[in-house]
């Protein structure tokens, strides 16, 4: 029987107060640790996603919203711009690479993005099986989309208008899964990728002033319906109320997609944004000026917007961190009061230890050990709580923010929390230990 | 072996205790008798080094413990003095065995479970080896307390009113056990008591 074992036995002989102290400590520390884990993964995701996009062009509106929606796939788009501007810029030899992005639709809360293969390359996406989309209505899906929705090669599905909830189904046409991407931890995991032309086809007849007759549909099968809510929610630029004719496309089997595309008026060929990787110097300035001179367009450099977002988040993060440390301080008092109460009942035992040959220092160490053991156990409990909590929160955040957040990530800085826990244990045990150190043996034994 | 000389202890300027000189040789057994409040427990604490005398000396095993202090005194007490208290107290979180092996390790000796078992068997409580203390009767606790006082084979055993809480039957039995075990370990035994039942059982008596 050594001092460490004695301290351990003293702790387990009072399981409830010990558990309460450990739990309080664990809750305080794990709140701070979950924040750390979230912040780490969020920063990594933001940096990894944003680092290669040097400029974004989209519809006029909130600059941050444009960056969040088109680069990070978080917010709703600011609106649409004409595809003609993209084709115009393509003629500019100074621009090495640009990626069209078209959004607004989803399938079971997974965003459908009309784009080209460069978008997949931008996020270092790799095919797990199948091929990359080539034709309209073909879809290459992210790994999480495949696993969560149970989609596999050859499966067909009907997308809908709206990103958070489908307000209107595009049941005229079905997407077909032609490829599944490997898990990359990027936005790709949660996206359904298809050519931009798919989006135009899906929105035939849904654009302002546009009315298309789909090949193979019966005349007179048209019906009217209103869909201003849809546009309000996903395409803020198109707020004006309007009615339009909606075609009955139930005989779409006979639809000739190429012919259909050829018939789409150029002014109705829209995309949500254009992403520019590897754009710098004069080329960047030129594109910026060009876009900003357009009446309904703006060009945004993502880096300052991200920095602004981080600054906006800082006060909230600071408040949560302060709360977590407040809980931790309460936990420290709990350990302190627990040890003090425990010692009050064990005064005679302390005196007895001294009679049996234990020095004052040995008694002091035994009480400090109790504080340290409680805090180390609290830390271990904190590890379990924080990583399990992060995993739970991660699942929710993945759905909300399209990024992978996991509890199965361990940071070196977690060891700092062990040091914090031990320091808390030591500090809270210090006064009780000092009291034990100064126990008057004779007086205690005479009572 | 145990010798006190000119020993005084002052609780305050008004309460000053003076103790008679005496000495006991190795293995000798004696009673210290006196009414309540005469300083019996104070003397016992002075003899075990728990209190420092205002004057005089306490020699145990030829060491003047009244001049010792700190860890040296603690260590000396653990190794050379066994104490049986009036009310047996233990470390409640531990079992009987753990209480006794802790006594060995705190005195700087190595853990000897065989010795613990033998002692408990001699005292008739071997079946309580792995019991928690709260599962023991008062009589059983007192026997375990005696085992604890003997487990390091101390040169001096001090017993503070060991029988005051016991009935006649248990009183005789406990006294017999303490005395026999002290003889067996060749330890000097000094019993502090006001219990008149013990008066005639020891040849050497020191009146306070």
Describe this protein's structure.
The complex is a heterodimer of chains A (447) and B (208). Chain A is α+β, with helices and mostly antiparallel strands and 447 residues long. Helix content of chain A is 52%, strand content 15%. In chain A, strands 1, 3, 4, 5, 6, 7, 8, 9, 10, 11, 15 and 16 form a twelve-stranded mixed β-sheet that branches. In chain A, helix 2 crosses helix 13. Chain B is α/β, with parallel strands linked by helices and 208 residues long. Chain B has helices at 40-47, 70-80, 96-106, 113-122, 138-150, 168-184, and strands at residues 2-10, 16-18, 22-24, 29-33, 55-60, 63-64, 81-84, 156-160, 188-193, 204-207. In chain B, strands 1, 2, 3, 5 and 6 form a five-stranded antiparallel β-sheet that branches. A five-stranded parallel β-sheet of chain B has the order 7-8-9-4-10, sandwiched between helices. In chain B, helix 5 (138-150) packs parallel to helix 6. The two termini of chain B are 21 Å apart. The interface between A and B is medium-sized, with 25 and 30 residues.
User: Helix coverage percent of residues of chain A?
Assistant: 40-55%
Specify Rg of chain A, calculated over alpha carbons.
31 Å
Could you give the count of β-strands of chain A? 16
Biggest beta sheet summary of chain B: 5 strands, antiparallel
Shape of chain B: globular
Distance between the termini of chain A: 28 Å
The H-and-E topology of chain B, N to C, reads as EEEEHEEHEHHHEHEE
Low-confidence stretches of chain B: none
Please give the oligomerization state of what you see. heterodimer
Which runs of chain A of at least 5 residues are low in confidence (pLDDT < 50)? Answer: 208-254
Q: Tell me roughly what share of residues is in helical segments of chain B.
A: 25-40%
Q: In terms of structural class, how would the helical and strand content of chain A be classed?
A: alpha+beta
Largest interface: A-B, 25 and 30 residues
Distinct helical segment count of chain B: 6
Query: Which structural class should the secondary elements of chain B be placed in?
Result: alpha/beta
Total DSSP E strands of chain B: 10
3D shape of chain A: elongated
